[in-house]
UniProtKB/TrEMBL annotation:
PANTHER family for this protein: ENZYMATIC POLYPROTEIN-RELATED, REVERSE TRANSCRIPTASE_RETROTRANSPOSON-DERIVED PROTEIN RNASE H-LIKE DOMAIN-CONTAINING PROTEIN
The species this protein was found in: Phytophthora fragariae
Entry superkingdom: Eukaryota
InterPro entries on file: DNA/RNA_pol_sf, RT_RNaseH
Protein name stated in the entry: Reverse transcriptase RNase H-like domain-containing protein
Amino acid sequence: MLPDESKPFHVVCDASDFAIGCALMQFDDEGRERIVSYQSRQMKPAERNYPVHGKELLAMSYALIKLRVYLLGEQTFAVYTDHASLRTAMKSPHLSQRMARWLSFFAE
């Protein structure tokens, strides 16, 4: 599906033990969810050692970088991930430097 700038985008991202991936989605005129773009890659050996919430944040970071051309200028868009521990990790007063950098990047 070609992107429709008049409709909101949403990003779905996920991480496994060895790879990360994401999809940029929109709903078509009939209300069906359609893929606009998708990206994936294998994790580097060091990334495979990240905790699960770190892998999910890596996938989110990768998604926002790869799909940036579509998302720049959008007023709002949603990012969906399947890991509940991200909520807890993001509210923690003890963040790793990596997590702090990612959260700063997401704030942009």
